[in-house]
Write a structure and sequence with these properties.
heterodimer; A: 242 residues; alpha+beta; Nuclear Transport Factor 2, Chain: A; 30% strand; B: 245 residues; globular
């Protein structure tokens, strides 16, 4: 093996590490409620980026920005609502200090499968999601277990790996402490003190499509995006995008 | 300052060993996705050993014993599983449905500990998996369970690259979702586990992992750095302290 070949292997190993780190950053941004910075920090500067969820695509830069850009307003409103409910605990805190209070979006990732293109310009990552998401709405705070997968295309831009396409697919999104096997999820009553949160829902996908059916006792089968396979250039492999 | 090492390796050897660990982790991650998506035969064909000598000694360990040899593993893991799944679907009036209907077997791996042998020919790894096993029921509901298990494996480098040689799933517990773990039965009763009921007798029946009282039955043990593979450290049946081969 020549020094050049050794350097090549080291570089590819570094690429794998960096891609894995970038996937980790994505879920940490969700946890830290940093959606406002998400697209600028982690995503490609291209206009054709896309983000897929179970029921469709946020297609293009504006759609992805609009989607993640919705969350800071929601997070701030939840904080205001909780500040009113708990004045003794939160009343003397500034809006910045309590930004994110009440929300806890833990989506740890594992089970990585990563392939870096031979040309070093793109990479593909696949991993499993496991965690829970605590949101607050008119019913108060509710925690759901989340099990699912992330499938991502990366592109190398400005000396960094950036997200080009991502599919965030959930199999399980069910209230913690409840049986997932029931046909309908556990329900909760509205609580008047959270009325200010009525009508707050994120933007719908700009392209409606069934990317992935959540698990139920009548789902046909577990179908996931294909695992990455070794490839030379992006043109010769499949895309996790639309 | 460079660390003092007992073994001096060239940069070439070092990067190859770094890649070996990556490939072993990748292999096991792929395995869990193949399982989740019902690609069991493909898993055996693509991810497990193919060299005839290694096929004979391949093993799949579960709490209740070992399936030994790739033909036996196929019988248990592919053929018997498919037959039992078809029977289970018929029993709930869904005999016309394709395999995978209403099932969700999701065992993502985390907490990897992988060592490549000093001779570079084999590798050993330990992972933990907190996952889910869900099965369809007649009314359209499902029997959903958490599944917590340690997974250990031996790997061997074949002409086609790193392959799975021996695997042990040592299941600590399953508990229905939404239920308290205090409802777990404290003593393991042979033949009562869902998988154990579903599958046929192993080639070597034995209590490989005892989950009673959820105590720390240290089988399979954590892998340590090693120079060359021996039966004593194998995650196949030969490495079990109670093996009477």
């Amino acid at each position: 093996m020549t020094n050049l070949q050794i350097e090549h292997l080291v570089e590819r190993w570094e690429d794998r590490r960096d891609v894995k780190n970038q996937m980790g950053k994505f879920v940490h941004y969700l946890l830290l409620k940093k959606e406002a910075d998400m697209v600028a920090d982690l995503w490609s500067g291209r206009d054709d980026i896309c983000y897929g969820v179970n029921d469709g695509w946020y297609a293009g830069r504006e759609a992805v920005k609009n989607y993640f850009g919705w969350f800071p307003g929601y997070t701030a409103k939840v904080a205001t609502c909780l500040k009113e409910k708990f004045p003794d605990k939160l009343g003397d805190k500034s809006d910045d200090e309590i930004f994110g209070v009440g929300l806890m979006e833990i989506k740890s990732i594992s089970n990585y499968v990563i392939e870096v293109a031979e040309d070093g310009q793109t990479a593909k990552g696949f991993c499993c999601l496991f965690g829970f998401n605590t949101t607050v709405d008119t019913r108060g705070p509710i925690s759901n277990w989340i099990l699912g997968t992330l499938a991502v295309d990366f592109v190398y831009e400005d000396d960094m790996w950036k997200i080009l396409h991502m599919q965030y697919l959930e199999d399980i999104n069910r209230p913690a402490g409840s049986d997932w096997g029931t046909i309908e999820p556990k329900t909760y009553e509205d609580r008047p003190e959270f009325e200010a949160l009525r009508g707050l829902t994120p933007p719908e996908p700009t392209v409606k499509a069934v990317l992935h059916e959540k698990y139920s006792g009548t789902r046909k089968a577990t179908v996931l995006p294909p695992l990455p396979v070794p490839y030379a250039t992006f043109a010769e492999t499949f895309s996790y995008g639309m | 300052m460079a660390k003092k090492k007992n073994v001096i390796r060239s940069n070439e050897e070092r990067i190859v060993r770094v890649w070996d660990v990556e490939q072993v982790k990748d292999l096991m991650s792929r395995r869990s996705i193949y399982e989740a998506t019902g690609r069991r035969q493909e898993e055996l064909d693509e991810l497990w050993v193919q060299v005839p000598e290694n096929r004979k000694t391949a093993s799949f360990g579960r709490n209740w014993g070992y399936y030994v040899g790739l033909d036996e593993i196929k019988k248990y893991y592919v053929d018997d599983y498919a037959a039992k799944e078809a029977d289970a679907l018929s029993a709930i009036g869904k005999g016309d449905e394709a395999p995978g209907y209403g099932r969700f077997l999701f065992h993502p791996l985390s907490t990897p500990l992988v060592y490549v042998a000093g001779d570079g020919k084999t590798a050993q790894g330990t992972w933990y998996s907190i996952g889910a096993d869900c099965y369809p029921e007649a009314e359209g509901t499902a029997d959903c369970n958490w599944n917590c298990q340690k997974i250990c494996a031996d790997f061997i480098k074949e002409p086609g690259g790193w392959k799975i040689w021996h695997v042990v799933f040592s299941q600590d517990f399953t508990v229905k979702t939404g239920h308290d773990t205090s409802e777990l039965q404290s003593i393991y009763i042979r033949g009562t586990g869902r998988d154990e009921i579903d599958f046929g007798d192993p080639t070597i029946p034995m209590l490989a992992h005892d989950p009673s009282y959820t105590w720390c039955d240290n089988y399979p043990p954590l892998n340590d750095p090693y120079e060359t593979f021996t039966d004593e450290i194998s995650y196949g049946p030969e490495g079990h302290p109670d093996y009477e081969g």
